Each structure stands twice: as structure tokens, then as C-alpha cells.
Amino acid sequence: MGTETFGRAAVDPGWDALARVAAGETGAFAELVASHQERLLRLCERLLGDVEEARDAAQEVFLKAFRKAGDFRPQGQVYTWLYRIAVNHCLNKLRRRRLVRFLRWDDAADPGNRGHPENTAEAPPFDPPDRAPDPAAALEARRRWSATRRAIARLPAGQRAVLVLARFEGLSYRQIAEVLGITEGAVESRLFRAMRRIEAAQETDSSQVSSREGRR
Amino acid sequence: MNRETEMELMRLLHGELPPDRERALRARLEREPELAAAWARLQRTWNGLELPPPAPIPLGFAQRVAARTREQSGARLPLPGEREMGSISWQAAPGWVRAAAAAALVAGAALGAGAGVWTGGRTSPVPEQGEQISGTAAEDGSLFGDDLAESYWSALDELGETPAAGDPAGDAL
Questions:
Q1: Does residue A4 belong to any structural domain of this protein?
Q2: Which of these, A111, A110, A92, lies nearest to A47 by C-alpha position?
Q3: B58 interface with A at CB cutoff 8 Å
Q4: For B171, which of A133, A150, B76, B84 could close a Cys bridge (C-beta 3.0–4.6 Å)?
């Protein structure tokens, strides 16, 4: 689970930086970007599954944060606020992506994705080399990453956001609820349904693999 | 296994169960093989979700954010690493800037006095018919202010510095 404080009680110095951005102090914005760029780039990459698109998205998120700095109300942590902007932005991008695919009558290239309207089959261009000395282990790691990407891409946008925040960002139910502006019960329910889907997809995949192997 | 029990397992996985309910559920896991199998499956699925380490932050990302924000909002944002000057302050200005400003002030005063001698008695021109008197005495005297500013900016230009955000000449946020 998350190791960082996310609660309302903690005083986040980031609010001060944001207040200075709103007051027109120009250096404060650069400070805000420097403090949060790593986290936001990572979140966008995990939600969108595409490094280049994630970089664009993170820039747009900072731009939105700059524009909204004057409307902020110090509540919780600054990065909750930034996460909310980022998640909404990425979910909108995913919805637009789905619409474009629908209009182009262009289903995902991966046959395993057919029938799932919210999927994305694009593999991120960044695929870091595994530092494990064992090539078989490296190959296995890549296989797991690829399977996870496919599994996440098959999820509806809302479930995807909850799963990414819980599994990869390590946020608690309460923190996720705060970021997404939903109840903890809704977080729990979305996560449950996401896991159900993933388990079902894994069972289908493994039965397809075993039937292919049986035909050989 | 009903949905409520499955949800309990999810909460257990995320450390969201209160201690008393966690103890009760763990006791059931010891007794019920079907529940234990579901728990093992859930853990396997959860732990099997892996992504590669995130891509490194691209070089110059913060500069691009500042440039894009500047381009789209019209704000004058300093690029990271760019020195921010804040507002112009004579106290903060280097000695040579103050010297240059003083020289410009003296030169301006001399120029003004010379102009007064050259124009003779016509120190209060009478406007022609329809001509408007263009400004107040304070505006007419802005020559000194312009000279001061000009000497300040040209001195900065020589140093290769540009006025940074927060300067009156720059765009406000």
C-alpha cells in the first residue's frame, strides 16, 4: 500500500507553491513541475500504456494545473489534486481513442482484444531491457509485462483507473476515492469487477494456449 | 463462495480489513479449502500483474512544459535553470548599472538644459488652432525615465541577459 501520507491532516508544502503560482510567482510553477513530473509521467504512462502519449498527456496536465491554480482549495495533498487532473485527462484520452477506433471501424490489432470496446492494443515503444542476467528470466518478465498490458487494456476506463492506482501507485481505497471523487464502496466494487475480468481473461488465455498445444 | 466473501478477500489483499475481521477471515481460510484456493488464486492474479519500470523522464521535459505553458497561456515563465530577477530594484542592481544610470541622468539633464537654451524664450509653446497639448509636464519629463530604462536594458543586452519573469517589462502571469 502507499507509503506516503495522503491524509487531510498532513500539511503539504505543495499548496504553498500552488498558491504562489496563483499569485503570479513565476518560479513556483517550475518548482511544481520539478516536484511532480516523475510521478505524473509514470501515472500517465500506466494509464495510457504509451510512453509518447503519456509525455504529451503529462504536459497537458501541468498546463491545466497552471490554469486552475487560481481555483484551488487547499485540501488533502497537492498530488491528489494533480492525480485527479491526470486521471480525468487520461480517461478522456482513452474515451476519444475508443471513439476514433469506432469511427474507423478499426478494432485492435490483437485478436485477443476483439469484442472489448475499451481495449487498446498499442504496445508502448519503451520496453526497457531487463537487467536480469538470465535471458530466460528476461523473456519471462517481458511476457508478464505484455500480459499485464493486455489485461489492463481490456478493462473499462473506470476500472482501469482504480486498478492502476491500487496496484501500481499503491494507493488505499480512501486515497483512490479522493482522487477519483467517488465513494470507497465504488472503489471496492470497481476493483472487484476489474479483478474478476482479469481472472476470466487469464482463464480464457490459458485454455486457448492448452487447446493450441493439444492440436499440435 | 458469495460476493461478500470475495470482497472480504479483496480487502484482505489490500490491507483494508479491520483487525478483528482479518483474524476471523484468516481463521476461515485455515478451515475452508475452497476459500483458501480462491485466496491463493486472487493473490496469484494480483501479484502476476507486473509492468516494466517506467520510462525515464525525458531530457528537457520541464523546459518543454514551461515553453508550452508560456505559448498557450501567454505567461512569461522562467525556464528551469533560468535566473529569475524578480522586480527591478536599484538597491539590488550591480554598481555598474547604477553608475550607468547616473551618467544617463546627468546626460539627460545636460541635454534638457541645452534644449532650453536652444529654444530661447519658447518654453511654453502656444498651441496652434486645433492642436492639442500633448501631455502633462510629468509626461514631458519622461525622457529621464526612458533613458534610465534604456541604459538598464542595453547594459543587460551587453551581458547577454534578458529580462526575466517578474520584470515590469515582461508579461505578467
A1: no
A2: A92
A3: yes
A4: B76
Interface of A with B in 11-40 (CB under 8 A): 21, 24-27, 29-30, 33-34, 37-38
Predicted-complex ipTM score: 0.71
Is A7 within a domain? Answer: no
Range of the domain at A77: 14-215
Predicted TM-score (pTM) of the model is 0.62
- Evaluate whether residue A3 is within a structural domain: no
**216 residues of chain A, pLDDT tens digit each:** 444 444 444 567 778 888 888 887 777 888 889 889 999 999 999 999 889 999 999 999 999 998 888 777 767 788 888 999 999 999 998 888 766 655 544 444 443 443 333 444 444 445 565 555 678 888 888 888 888 888 888 899 889 999 999 999 999 999 999 999 999 999 999 999 999 999 888 777 767 666 666 665
**Residue B50, Cβ density class (10 Å: 0-12 exposed, 13-18 middle, ≥19 buried):** middle
- Domain assignment present for residue A8? The answer is no
Number of domains in chain A: 1
